[in-house]
Design goal:
Layout lengths: L1 E4 L2 E4 L13 H15 L15 H11 L11 E6 L2 H22 L2 H7 L10 H4 L2 E8 L1 E4 L2 E4 L3 H18 L3 E2 L8 H7 L5 E10 L15 H4 L5
Length: about 230
C-alpha cells in the first residue's frame, strides 16, 4: 500500500500481529539475574587463538546484530567479515601506522596514562592472529536511483547493533575486542567500501587462548549507574 505525502508516494508497511511470552515475578527475577550474571562474564580480550570460526557462526552473529532497532527502520549498517590473511595483514599494517601516531603525540598524556594498566601500545598483533575481523560500518545515507536518501539516528542505531553483536559473540562462546584505531578512514580504502559508508568499529573475534589473562577489573555497582524515580 502506498501513501501520498506531499508530492511523494510513500510505501506504507502493513502491520502484523505480535505476541511476547510473559513470566511470573519470580521467573522474571531469576531470568534477569541469570542474564546479568552471564553477561557479567563477558570480557574484552587482546589475545586470541588462531582457531578458525565456522562461517555460518559468523553469519548468525551478524544476523543477530541486525535485529537491533534503528531510526525509521533504515538499518544503516554494514558488517564486513574479514578472514582473508592478506587483508588482515593489510589492516594490521595500516592500523599500527595510525596507532603509532596516536601513542606518539595524538593522544594526551592523561589518555596514555589511563591506558597503561592495560599494557597496550601501538603494536596490534591480534589483528592478524584473530581468525576473524568484523568491521562495522555506518551507512550515512543511501543512494537510490541516483538520489541521496538520508538515514536517521545513524550513530545511535549502529551503536545499538554493535551491542547486539557483542552479546551474540559472547553467546557463541567467543571473545572480542572493540578496537578504534582513530582515524579509521584506512578501513574504507582497504575494503573498498562505497562513499556512503564510514568505519564505526573494528572488532577482532575469536576463541581465547589457553593462557588467556584479563585485568582484574571491577564494574560499577547499581547505585553508581542507576537513579530510581519512584
Amino acid at each position: 500500500m502506498s501513501l501520498q505525502i506531499g508530492s511523494d508516494m510513500v510505501e506504507e508497511h502493513s502491520f502484523i500481529s505480535y505476541s511476547k511470552e510473559s513470566y511470573s515475578e519470580d521467573e522474571m527475577l531469576k531470568r534477569s539475574k541469570d542474564f546479568y550474571e552471564w553477561m557479567d562474564k563477558r570480557r574484552t580480550l587482546r589475545e586470541f587463538s588462531d582457531k578458525p570460526i565456522p562461517k555460518e557462526v559468523l553469519g548468525n552473529i551478524v544476523k543477530a546484530a541486525s535485529t537491533a532497532p534503528s531510526g525509521a527502520n533504515k538499518q544503516p549498517w554494514t558488517f564486513c567479515i574479514v578472514t582473508n590473511p592478506e587483508i588482515k595483514s593489510e589492516i594490521k599494517k595500516a592500523a599500527e601506522k595510525e596507532e603509532y601516531e596516536n601513542y606518539h603525540g595524538r593522544m594526551s598524556e592523561e589518555w596514555v596514562k589511563d591506558l597503561q594498566p592495560f599494557h597496550t601500545d601501538w603494536n596490534k598483533p591480534f589483528l592478524e592472529i584473530a581468525p576473524a575481523l568484523i568491521i562495522v560500518f555506518k551507512r550515512v545515507y543511501e543512494e537510490i536511483d541516483g538520489n541521496k536518501k538520508n538515514n536517521y539516528y545513524v550513530n545511535e542505531s549502529v551503536g545499538l547493533a554493535t551491542g547486539f553483536l557483542l552479546s551474540a559473540i559472547h553467546n557463541a562462546g567467543l571473545v572480542a575486542l572493540t578496537h578504534t584505531p582513530s582515524p579509521m578512514n584506512f578501513l574504507s580504502e582497504v575494503l573498498k567500501r562505497p562513499e556512503n559508508e564510514r568505519a564505526f568499529l573494528l572488532i577482532p573475534v575469536g576463541y581465547p587462548p589457553d593462557d588467556a589473562k584479563v585485568p582484574d577489573l571491577k564494574r560499577k555497582g547499581l547505585d553508581e549507574i542507576a537513579v530510581y524515580y519512584d
